[in-house]
Here is the input.
Amino acid sequence: MLLWAKAIRLLVLTSYKPHVAHLYNQVTVKPGQRLYMVNQRYPYTLRFTEDTSTPRSATERSKPSKRARQMSSEGNGEQIESPADTTSERHRTPDDSPPPKKTSDKPESAGHWSQGLKASMQDPKMQVYKDDRVVVIKDKYPKARYHWLVLPWDSISSLKALRSEHVELLEHMQRVGERVLQQCPDARSLRFRLGYHAVPSMSHVHLHVISQDFDSPCLKNKKHWNSFTTDYFVESRDVISMLEKDGKVTVKEGTSELLKLPLRCHSCGKEQPTIPKLKEHLKTHLPP
Here is the structure.
């Protein structure tokens, strides 16, 4: 219902300049009275409606109104705020709830560093051999003069995923690795090993074919060294034997601790205090 008020008090703009309202006069107006705003240019007639809402306290009136969040699905069950309605943390009032924490049980995304092998094996510049079952690539950060990786095209995440039906595939990987190293110009003078890391950092099963000179600037720390010179490195034929016998590959508990062992020469067993000292020592074992 429309009601006419007896009188109200308004602040009326009486002087105007572009972008600046600099002088206000307080006047009393009555219902039906006509006002001329902005230098008498715009006439307005007053009319009022009844306010049936519950009066708010001064504290409530001082609180900013909240914007409703616009939700959308990103395909992973997470709800996100529309960019136009996002409130930054520094402008969040005490009554605003913090945004929900993102939780996900999904595997690592394709862009994660641990998935790098999957990209490298598709790169023609990295490939040195391929057939319908496997591909051989140069290790991007070789730990020796010659360091290749043999990877199956089939998606197999790690040694733990291997079963007895993979024996034939691993035997093929072994044969391909031996064929590649035989084509190496230093195959007769250098010693090679073929094997797997017991607990690899990179996803997708890969067989290392690596020369035992370890003459490389990419070999930088104790973890690098011990991952190839201790039982952390499992011979290819030992992996095949485990699958034939048990139908799976068993990694001993505490294997990761092997990476913390002292730096010890893989040829003579002499312990070295630092990587630079070890590398200098290794030169004494290189062929003339």
Notes: The CA atoms of residues 8 and 29 lie 6 Å apart.
